[in-house]
Structures are given as structure tokens and as C-alpha cells.
Amino acid sequence: MLTRRAMLAAATVVASLVMAVPATASPLSSEDRISARLDTLRQSPDGLARFLRAFPKGGDLHNHLSGAVSTESLIRYAVSDGLCIDKTTLAASYPPCTATQRPAADTNTDKGFYSAVLRAWSMEGFDLHGPESGHDHFFATFGKFGAATDRHKGDMLAEVAEIAQRQNQFYLETLISRQGAAVRALAASVGFNADFAVMRQKMLDGGAMAKVVAASKADTDADYAQFNAALKCGTPSASRACVFPIRYDYQVGRATNPEIVFANLLLGFELGQVDGRYVGVNLVQPEDDPIALRDYHLHMTMVGFLHQLYPKTRITLHAGELTPDLVPPADILFHIREAVEIAGAERIGHGVDVRHETNAAQLAREMADRHVLVETPLTSNAQILEVSGPEHPMRWYQRFGVPIGLATDDPGVSRSDITADYVRAVTEQHQTYRQLKQISRASLDHGFIQGASLWRGPDDFRPVAACAGSVLGGANPSQRCKQLLHDSPKAAAEWAQEAAFRAFEG
């Protein structure tokens, strides 16, 4: 298989040969026409937003479920569950309410209280130039609204699936955790052991981890029952989102004791082996947290060790969600490299500090050769890290051939959506139509959804032999192509997107 660099070099040679041929007038292709239309809209905010809302936008590969649902829904959940809200911190908790709390139901009658909660639980109205940093406000929201999410995972998934479908996306990979108390208890009973094999075996002994896996699967079943009820799946009035392709990446909090991190990772890897709804693992919480910094190398070795034992479970990691203002100089030199080389990450999230990494250019070339995609939530990067425009490394990655996939991160908290990130890609990162199309395709092709790809190879968007003779996204693929689309959820999603491109480009 050609490496990414070799493919780019070959493309350059072909382009030079084509340029040497005398030009002749020919009709513009549909892609050329739509590309020209995008260029006319670059200075028209409303027109650009309409254009990109309709544009087929692949998959969302970096999406935290608890942070993706709208803040209005979170407040509604808090009211329906009878929660209490602290008058000072505005954090939700279970009743009974104390003298320092108010019933969440007060948000129904007190507009000022409602507005205060909305702002505390999201980036609504946040002043990036105020005394509190966007980083601190953003991450603090999760502890404030967390209790409101406990009983509504299926409702949240339903809302987020409908949003993704309305945004003309074709796949969602969302992050979730399971059985936190049980995992912590198991970790405490085993304790930490630097010999990962011994620690893993102790967690498996007596079926201890198997019980947590079974409980996690039961939780997932319950969430999907709630999801189906919310969307009226199986009824004549079922939402189209009932059949929207969704998979989970199991998220592991990194700012805690190492035995808890390991136990959670083990649960995520086990789930990925036995439950097709779980396809990957990820580490979450602020990368600049003191514990996360102290144990970063340890965490990478844990992931790498477990991946050798559970190759079916895929790896995507938050890495490089840092700036020099957040961490000591030594901690900004190696996070992305260790995620790729030690943990074996196939995708990384954020990757903003890459130019501070030791031998950054070599690392980028390695990522391109390995086809490591960077999940790029431009809105989130601007709000949390205050990195945007020319300071953002998106175009730097692209110069090395590193694949990019735009993502939302926590659109509910950010008060944003995937269209806004595509708008930023055009207005701040100066992306062309063909680059947007490449990004959109990559965000599906690098998804961990099961099945063979429609494409010949990673980031090589030519159809496989079975579909090479068929019109991409057409209504009548060949029998061999039909079989691929039947057998592969990934190829089916990619074909649906190609059909959407055909319609969009007219």
C-alpha cells in the first residue's frame, strides 16, 4: 500500500503533467460549480451558514454525550427529577433541598434564576476576556449539571441523534462512561500494581469485571429503550433518527488514581470485545490536570498494554489539548507522540499543541503515514484554549497530509453545532470546497463503525473494486456493490453520504 507521503508525491507529479497540457474550454463539473458558489458566499455569513448547513458533513467522531445535549434540556431534566440547585455554585444535586439550595422547578417561574443556571451550565454569554478563563468555566459546567443527566442518557442520545441528522451528518460516535461506583470499588479492592498483567487478572478473577460488564450492557439496553420511546421507534410516527448509525467510545476519566483509570480502561476494552455498540476507548478530563500530567506516560502504557490483548477495541485519545499557558514547558513536548507511538491511537482529539512537540514535523509526517486523524473541534478549541485562526494548527497538519475530521466536542455546553465548525473552517482556516469534502469523507472513513470501507484505502477516496463501476451514491449499484453495502454498516453510511453529495452538487 502506498504511504500517505508517496500518494501526495504522486499526485503532485500528475498535477504537473496535467498543467503541461494545453487548456481547452470544457463545461464546469457539478463539483466545480458548487465550489465556485462557496467562494461567492465567503463574505456572506447568512448565505455561508445556509450553504454549510445543507452540506453533507460526514460523521462526528468527537462528541461527549453529556456535553452534547442542549442546556435547556438539562434544566428540564433537573426540574422533572425534582433536583435542587445550590444558590451560590448553581450545581445540581438530589433532594431534599437545603436552605442553601433552591428547587430546580424555580427555573420555571424565575427568569433570572433560569438565566443564571443556563450561563453556569454552558458557555452562554461567557466573556472570554473576563476574570474566569474559558478553560475553567467550560470544564466546571460538567460538575454543575451532572446530576441532571443521570436518568436521561437515552433521552440525551435521542436528542443528539436528531440534531446530527438535521445537520446532514451520517454517523455519530459519542463518549460515555458506565458503572462508576462499581469500577471504583473493584479498583479499590485490587489496588495498583505496576505489573499490568497481574492487576488485570485480579480484576478478572471471580468474574468481578464480568459483572461490571454485564451491568454496563444492561444500562445500555435501558438507555436504548428510553431512546426508542423518545423517538417513537417502531411506530408509524417514528423519527428518522431511529435508524441513525450511532456507536459509543468508552470514556475514562484520567484525573484519578491509576488503579481506577486501569479498571475503567479494562471495562472499556472488555465492552468493545463483547458489545458491538462499543467500538473504542478514550481518556477524558482536562489534560492539564495535575494527576493527568503526572500519570500521562503511565496512562499511555496502560492503553498500549490493553490494546495488545483486545485488538478489536479501537483507540482514540484526547492528546495535545494544551497551550504553553496551561502547563510547564516539559509537559507540552510529547503528549501527541506518546498517544500515537505508545498507546497506538488511530485518532487524536484536539492536537492543538503539536508545533510544541519535539521534532514536530517528523511527528506530523509519521501521523500522515499512519493515517492518524485529528478530531478538530474548532469552536471548542477557541472557547477552551483560545486558539483559533492562524494560531490553530489545522492547516499546518494539512500541509503534511494529516487527515482532519471536524467535530463538535460538547456542542450543548458550547452553544454551537457542527455547521458552526464548518463555517469556522471556511472563514478562519480558508478551506476550499474540495478540502471540506475531503474532511467530510475522512470523518466517516476514520469512524470505528464496523465493516469494510467503500474506499480503496485510508484517505484514498476512490471506490473499491466492487463499487468502481457504479455511480457513487446512485440508486442502482452493481450486485457486488449492493452486497458490500448490505454487509458493511460503514460502507452503507459512506454510500448514503455520496448520495447526499450528488443531490447537494446537483
Automatic annotation (TrEMBL):
One Pfam family linked to the record: A_deaminase
Any one GO cellular component localisation term in the record: cytosol
GO molecular function: adenosine deaminase activity; metal ion binding
First and last residue of the signal peptide: 1-25
Domain Adenosine deaminase: 312-450
GO terms of biological process kind: adenosine catabolic process; hypoxanthine salvage; inosine biosynthetic process
EC number in record: 3.5.4.4
InterPro entries named in the record: A_deaminase_dom, Ado/ade_deaminase, Metal_Hydrolase
Superkingdom, taxonomy of origin: Bacteria
Cofactor(s) this protein cannot do without: Zn(2+)
Entry-linked Gene3D superfamilies: Metal-dependent hydrolases (3.20.20.140)
Keywords tagged on the record: Hydrolase, Metal-binding, Signal, Zinc
Family to which the UniProt record says this protein belongs: Belongs to the metallo-dependent hydrolases superfamily. Adenosine and AMP deaminases family.
Protein name: adenosine deaminase
Species this protein is from: Amycolatopsis xylanica
